[in-house]
Amino acid sequence: MITLAVDAMGGDVGLAVTVPGAVAFLKQQPNARLMMVGDEQQVRSALESANAPLDRIEIVHASQVVEMDEAPQLALKNKKDSSMRVAINQVKEGKAQAAVSAGNTGALMATARFVLKTIPGIERPAIAKFLPSAGNHMTLMLDLGANVDCTAEQLVQFAVIGSELVQAMNPEKGMPRVGLLNVGTEDIKGTDTVKQTFRLLQDSNLNFTGNVEGHTIFSGDVDVVVADGFVGNIVLKTIEGAVKFMGSAIKQEFQSNLFTKAAALVSLPALKGFKNKLDPRKFNGAIFLGLRGVVVKSHGGTDAVGFTYALEEAYHEANADSMVRIEQGVATQLAVLAEKCLEREQAKAADNIE
User: Fold this and answer.
1) Which residues, in sequence order, are CB contacts of 205 under 8 Å at separation 6+?
2) pLDDT band at 71 (very low <50, low <70, confident <90, very high)
3) Which of 74, 94, 252, 349 ranks highest by number of CB atoms within 10 Å?
4) Contact of 258 with 86, CB cutoff 8 Å
5) How far apart are CA 39 and CA 17, in angstroms?
6) Does the domain made of 1-117+291-320 have the CATH classification 3.40.718.10?
7) Where in the chain is the domain with CATH 3.40.718.10?
8) CATH architecture of residue range(s) 129-281+332-353
9) Which EC class is the enzyme in (predicted)?
10) The predicted structure's pLDDT at residue 158
11) Is there a contact between 47 and 60 (Cβ–Cβ < 8 Å)?
12) pLDDT in tens, 43-68
């Protein structure tokens, strides 16, 4: 039985989304139970009104709520009994295999990092997300906004944890293909940091395919795309905006005259399929990767359907025992990388002596 700790109060509307999302999730996953964290009286009332299966739900009281616009450091310092922090504490204490919150992203990252700490060898956690690509393929992209300014070593660490997560989730597929997001595929392109990252990834034991451009995210040619949080967040927001624009433009064209309206009726099944395939709610749930525990961030403004998908993401990660596999893989990969870097430095020193 997989147990998830849910920040029931987090998000733009809190219980109005988290409770129906939790109920729908439990109907889909009979091998799961939830710890709903928040004001006990409010949570219980909402669960009873939703006819929730209370035999698979434990209510954990928390007296505080982190507001969506609250400063992360203030939330960390002053909200020690918040629903967000108490949910993460359940993972720390081994009572839950993952925590899910739709709350303040900055506060969630700061709290999760403080409570759970990072995996040995990983300096900073990254926000990672599986994105749809060609052939029903899913591509993991990170970082999506946690670290706007990264060193080459940190980008390599992101590549390692991303590769290990994909392998943990899909062990039958072999070594994941890793690409470094750049303005071109040539190794001479990009910033100094990106060029240095390229060289380090070449020395690693990862299945590094080289630099990739933005369109590769959706081509299915790689399994992991690595970028710093500044670039990654811009890419993510651009994707979200493009999908909304496409939907609006298609709707406008089909409503422009009687002929296109008639064509819309004929095309309705295909249009519904297209809309369903690109429904952003189905891809809700970003992973705080690099922590010693599973934490999934749901979009704060999502609805119950979207929150259900965030719970599904956390469930599958926990079910795959991904954190144990990632920690083991990170230790191995970073040891190999350190050894190769040492060999390179020794070779340079020998050349200088000669």
Assistant:
1) 332, 333, 336, 337
2) very high
3) 74
4) no
5) 15
6) yes
7) 1-117+291-320, 129-281+332-353
8) 3-Layer(aba) Sandwich (3.40)
9) transferase
10) 95
11) no
12) 999 999 999 999 999 999 999 999 99
